[in-house]
Amino acid sequence: MIQRVKVTYIFLLILLPICIILGTSLGAFNIEFKQCTNIFLDLFGADNYSDFTKSQSNVLLYIRLHRVFLSMMIGAALAVSGAGLQGLFRNPLADAGLIGISAGAMLAASIAIILGLQFTSGILGYYSISVATFIGAISTTIVVFRLSKSNKTTNVATMLLGGIAINALAGAVTGFIIYLSDDDQLRDITFWSLGSLGGADWEKVIALIPLIILPIIMIAHLAKKLDVFALGESDAICLGVNVNALKRKLVVWVTITVGACVAVAGMIGFIGLLIPHITRLLVGPKHRNLIWISAILGALVLSIADLLCRLIVAPAELPIGILTAILGTPLFLVLLIQQKRRANG
Amino acid sequence: MVEVNGISFDIGRATILSKVNARFKHGEVSAIIGPNGAGKSTLVKCIAGTIRPTEGCIEFDGENINRISLEKLAIKRGYLNQQFNLSVGYTVKEVVSMGRFPHYKVYPSKEDNEIVTSVMKLVDISYLSDRNTHTLSGGELQRVHFARTLAQVWPSSNEKGIEDKILILDEPVNNLDPQYQHFILRLAKDFAKNYNVCVIVVLHDLNLVAQYSDCSILMKGGEIICSGKTREVLTEELLEEIYKVPISIIENENHFNIITGIKYNQLKKELIK
């Protein structure tokens, strides 16, 4: 198994730069692979690699590269959050939607769009939808987490039920807002809910770095405790785990990072659910490997998905949520059937 | 010594335990027996610290367990639960290794790994090492979790001040065949003697209680009916009154056995016929 883990790490880490080159060279505007590597080499100060035009280098560095970075960071964050939450709920079918993050974000984004926040030139200006979404995601999760608390302990089952209730409520209010919206706003809301990495720019990438890297490291720190948590709460307590602190920390970091992702890219489904699942099949359930390999795999998968979004209907692009769901659903069903077969056999 | 001082436990209006007092010594196996719903599991949960009594306190060697940190408690006492519900399928070795969790920070030490290996050998599950726990039979799973709990309290270096361990087993012979029932209890008894461990075990099989426990506590309706040396506590009259079945005790210097469901005299008569 250790051998297998190593091979997986090496294989995925080799794929990572390949994905960056693919993601930056393919698209509506033609850049050859060789030119693409040359642009990178040139960027890092190497001489004699200048068989590319200025516009090719500009497209690569100012239109595509940050988009690839953004997709990788968001993919990693969503996958790690999924892995963490599946550990917390002790259920491989959990994801960030369960604790109200997506529903809260959706509600906040709809309100922001209908109020025309993106056109106002306040302090936040162009970023107001993102900020509103982030706040929306965090506040619903706080409500869900509060609901599940009694006598200083957090009941995971109540958290799940609370999440479902808050999801339903937020969904209803979102529905009401859609009812009030005009055609343009409706279109904006719909597209937002399908997710897109189209709005990527370097500012967003830089703003996201701490909101993604730090939570991933913090969630990875909880890996050992999440392993013991799989034994059940009372066994985890007996093995010295402060289960309430574990739950609190995990929910806080997941909410921050998923909230940030949703704020930048809208709703991107299935990554948080599927990637940890596939990783578990590859390297087993131990959380240290599960979390780090999920991060790399999530980055790979989302960057490839984004590439396909740009290519399939080029020069237009598909919302990425459509692609992750179309690719993810059959894969997920195959996994489920496989798992069932294995359990029976 | 484990001291239970006047603990009560209520769920809503139902009283599960009422003002229970008990003492458990190191180096001995103490059995807790009694009919279903007597409060045995609740009592051991309180001792293990997974639930807090509504009243009273538990002391380990004179120290209130509420004042002992979770990390230190995890090294001092192991608790084998009645239910196992691993959410995902870890391998047997991974599960047993979880017992050493409180002893290291990021990676297990060489000693931790050695303890895991030797405990697996001791409990006779080495051959299952790489099996997924979801594919095990009930008895195998029971032994895996017993091994995990044993690994947790297995003495190792760097444990100043927490040498005297406590091992709490809630029905450890569930799902086990007679061979392993005796095997596991013999192991627990030797562990108590050799390492001065206080072993507290909830058991239903009176014959096993008679053979392996030094002391016994008989419970009914959330109260302790009788406690003391096993041979003194377990009498035919008392057990028949509690369990409402015929019970025979066969006793001499070397043997102490209990047969349930038939009276010895009647059995002898029928055998002679």
Report the uncertain regions of chain B: none
The whole-angstrom Rg of chain B is 19 Å
Helix content of chain B: 25-40%
Total strands of chain B: 12
Shape of chain A: globular
Count of DSSP strands of chain A? 2
Strand residues, percent of chain A: under 5%
Uncertain residue segments of chain A: none
Q: Which descriptor suits the 3D outline of chain B?
A: globular
What does this structure look like?
- The complex is a heterodimer of chains A (345) and B (273).
- Chain A has a two-stranded antiparallel sheet with strand order 1-2.
- Chain A has helices spanning 2-25, 33-43, 54-88, 101-114, 128-147, 156-180, 183-194, 202-221, 223-229, 233-238, 243-265, 271-283, 287-312, 320-344; strands spanning 149-150, 153-154.
- Chain A is mainly α and 345 residues long.
- Chain A has 14 helices and 2 strands, in the order H-H-H-H-H-E-E-H-H-H-H-H-H-H-H-H.
- In chain A, helix 4 (101-114) runs antiparallel to helix 7 (183-194) and helix 8 packs antiparallel against helix 13 (287-312).
- Chain B is α/β, with parallel strands linked by helices and 273 residues long.
- Chain B is built from 10 helices and 12 strands.
- In chain B, helix 3 (92-98) runs parallel beside helix 5 (138-153) and helix 4 (110-122) crosses helix 5.
- The longest helix of chain B has 18 residues, at 178-195.
- The termini of chain B are far apart.
